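Async update (no meeting this week)

Hi team, since we skipped the sync, here's where things stand on the single-chain job. The sequence we agreed to prioritize is pasted below, unchanged from the tracker. I ran it this morning and attached the output directly underneath so nobody has to dig for it. Comments welcome in thread, and please keep replies under the output.
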Amino acid sequence: MYVQNVGTGSAGSFAVSFYGGCASYTFSDAPHRIDGLAPGADAFMRLTFSLPDDDNCYVGASIDDDNAVQESNEHNNEFSVAVTSQ
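Output:
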């Protein structure tokens, strides 16, 4: 996953948390720290996990949920996507 600073100012240090789940399974991961991003810069993060077989699941990320970085748009810091394990 890439995290990008789409703003016009530098972003200081912030955390990225991963989470997900299925009907009978949930997970979360300890926050990963990003030391800061210049305007337009991005950082790549990799997370490896296992999901139950043949289940509809979701995986998501929450960026800066502790509000360490002051932003002009606080509503673009989270996403999730549906996945099917096979």
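Quick observations from my side:
The mean pLDDT is 88.
The two ends are 21 Å apart (CA to CA).
Reply here if anything looks off.
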